[in-house]
Amino acid sequence: MISAPFLLHVKGEQRSQVNQKLIHLIATMSRQVSSQLAVSIDVLPANIHRQALASHYTRILRRWPVDRLRPEERTFQHLLQNRIKNPPVDAASGEQEANAAYLLLENDLRNRFPLSKKIMRPASNPEHYERVAREVDEIPTRGMLDRVWKRLSGMVRMQ
Fold first, then answer.
1. Same domain as 41, residue 75
2. Average pLDDT over the chain, rounded to whole?
3. Are residues 19 and 97 in the same domain?
4. b/e string for 44-72 if b means 16 or more Cβ within 10 A?
5. Residues 35 and 88 in one domain
6. Which pLDDT tens digit goes with each residue over 6-25?
7. Do residue 66 and residue 127 come from a single domain?
8. Do 67 and 145 fall within a single domain?
């Protein structure tokens, strides 16, 4: 899932500039990975037009996981919806963006470069990432009293 923390602080006109930079970053990352691995990325047909590109973005949008921590207008889904409405004019850059998004969607890099157990379970705090994932899952369903209790228990160390 892509969700950059800096998007939380971007407002108004700057948001579209940041969205463009994020799409460019994804395309650049795709090119770098393919060149470093000496593997060619399946490129969409060269004669792809705006409508076909919009359909690729729609397919990606349907499969993209929901970001429960970000406001709606600052998620990658929102960025994809904007790209569906206004696909890039340059077919080559649109192809690169779509390919990069497919790579991220299919966890291609995660599968090629898996993290070791030492990274995911550090000796100093082995359950840290499991607790973070559990907290993220609990946040949307938490009621008002649960939020107050969580805040109070965070102020006082309970063991």
1. yes
2. 76
3. yes
4. beeebeeebbbebbeebbeebeebeebee
5. yes
6. 344 445 556 566 666 777 77
7. no
8. no
- Whether the Cβ atoms of residue 42 and residue 66 lie closer than 8 Å to each other: no
Residue 142 in contact with residue 150, Cβ under 8 Å?
Answer: yes
The amino acid present at 65, given as its one-letter code, is: P
Are residues 96 and 40 in contact, defined by beta-carbon separation less than 8 angstroms? no
Which pLDDT band holds residue 159 (cuts at 50, 70, 90)?
low
d(CA 153, CA 63): 37
Segments in 38-143 forming alpha helices (H): 50-63, 76-85, 91-105, 108-112, 117-120, 128-138
Domain limits at 149? 117-155
Q: What is the pLDDT of residues 45-102, one digit of tens each?
A: 434 467 888 888 999 999 998 887 788 888 889 988 988 888 777 777 888 888 899 9
